[in-house]
Amino acid sequence: MTKTEFAARLKNACGAVLSAEEELTEIDSRFGDADHGLTMAKIAGAIGRAVEQPGGGIQSMLDDAAMAVMTLNGGSAVPLWNTWLDGMQEGAPEGDEIDVAGLQAMFARALEELNDMSGAKVGDKTMMDALIPASEAIAAYEGADESGLFEAAARAAAQGAEDSKQFVSKFGRAKSYGEKTIGTPDAGAVSMSYFFQGLARA
Fold it and tell me: Is the pLDDT of residue 174 over 90?
């Protein structure tokens, strides 16, 4: 996969998140600050603009995306996404092409970096409920086609976001609502799921 093709997938991912802004705001309004939709729109917009910039290879493109997110004012999602993207660029190739093995290494490094910062696991009702299953699906993928890899990740992320409905919130403002949060998905998991749905679109 070329840098141009990967950039197109990243733009599709950002578009999917932007299209879900109202839904994300509504979910977050139930037990949060009702700002997740706006924050994710800022993050998606920043990533989308960064990957449009000419010059440099894949690592440089992802570094630009991480830097663009880092400068944003927003909720807790900003440092989390910055860390994830920064981990991604650390594992990315400097050149203009990446294969399945390269993608697996890149997403593994990204998860490792975010795990070190977040500490959240599946079941804690956070973005990690979608990101960890998606990352595991990428790591387990045995095909040679990046489309199949992203499709597997998207399915896992969507299931993870759906599964987050049954969990009790353990982080952030929603934590104070305890078992009342059961039945509502985590907004961060839903936005991460949308991002992977977009990545699966070439």
Answer: no
CA dist 50 and 34 (Å) reads: 26
DSSP structure class, residue 177: G
* Alpha-carbon span 97 to 87, nearest angstrom: 18
Token digits of residue 181: 């949060």
Q: Would you call 12 helix, strand, or coil by DSSP?
A: helix
pLDDT above 90: residue 103: yes
173 pLDDT more than 90: no
User: Of 111, 1, 135, 134, nearest to 58 (Cα)?
Assistant: 1
Report d(CA 138, CA 101) in Å as an integer. Answer: 10
The sign one gets for the Cα dihedral 53, 80, 121, 93 is positive
Q: What pTM value is reported for the model?
A: 0.97
Under a CB-based contact definition with an 8 Å cutoff, are residues 191 and 20 in contact? yes
Distance CA 21, CA 202 (A): 22
Contact 181, 31 (CB under 8 A): yes
Q: Report how far apart, in Å, the C-alpha atoms of 119 and of each of 83, 94, 127, 161, 177 are.
A: 13, 29, 11, 18, 21
Contact 171, 124 (CB under 8 A): yes
